[in-house]
Amino acid sequence: MSAHEEAAIRRQIEKVVEGLRAKDLEALREPYATDVVSFDVEPPLQHVGIGAKLANWARVFEVFETVDYELRDLALTMGGDVAFGHAFGRLSGTMKNGVATVGMWVRVTYGLRKIDGTWRIAHDQVSVPLDILSGTGMVDLEP
Predict the structure, then answer these.
(1) Is this structure's pTM higher than 0.85?
(2) What is the mean pLDDT of residues 80-84?
(3) What letters, b where the CB count within 10 A reaches 16 and e where it falls short, cover 80-116?
(4) Closest Cα partner for 76 from 12, 140, 130?
(5) Which pLDDT value is given to residue 1?
(6) How far apart are CA 72 and CA 86, in angstroms?
(7) 92 has a pLDDT exceeding 90
(8) Could you tell me where the DSSP H helices lie in 1-143?
(9) What is the b/e burial string over 50-65, where b = at least 16 CB atoms within 10 angstroms of the residue's CB?
(10) Mean pLDDT of 96-106
(11) Could you give the CA distance from residue 136 to residue 97 in angstroms, rounded to a whole number?
(12) What is the mean pLDDT of residues 72-94?
């Protein structure tokens, strides 16, 4: 992967972080493909299209007064007009009821396509490890 292409991909993912911190749905629209498929931690199993993706973020903004998002250890691989990346992410902030939360670390995977010369997130997946015996998500782990 060329340094220029890697920087362009990292910039698109950084736009997600900036859009979340600003609680700006229009800023969040830009880095995603219009036909993005998202496997988020919230039901249903998949959210299809930019409208569904933005609706997920809108629900976050309804609950949080202030939002912070931290992304750690982003690793990227690219070939031609497709790329993927994985990282750890944590959404935190102050909820509308005044309670501050440090959030939980999740595993994030990005699938990107170069569309009309611009890298767009075409797929993302957010998950937490599962304790198979109890069926409970393990939300207290840290990278």
Answers:
(1) yes
(2) 96
(3) eeebbbebbbbbebeeeeeeeeebbbbebebbbbbee
(4) 12
(5) 67
(6) 9
(7) yes
(8) 3-22, 25-29, 50-63
(9) beebbeebeeeeeebe
(10) 96
(11) 26
(12) 97
Question: Which of 71, 68, 61 minimizes the C-alpha distance to 107?
Answer: 71
Q: What is the CATH number of domain 3-127?
A: 3.10.450.50
How many residues can be counted in the chain?
A: 143
Q: Which two tokens stand for residue 140?
A: 């207290």
Give how far Cα 33 sits from Cα of 10, 36, 42, 128, 139, Å.
Answer: 15, 5, 20, 24, 29
Pairing of strands 32-39, 118-127: parallel
CA separation for the pair 76, 110 (Å, rounded): 9
What are the sequence ranges of the domains in the chain? 3-127
Looking at residues 22-47, what average pLDDT do you find? Answer: 95
- pLDDT(47) > 90: yes
Residues facing 84 on adjacent strands = 77, 111
> 138 or 49: whose pLDDT is higher?
49
- DSSP E strand stretches across 19-137: 32-39, 47-48, 64-79, 82-95, 100-101, 105-115, 118-127, 130-131, 136-137
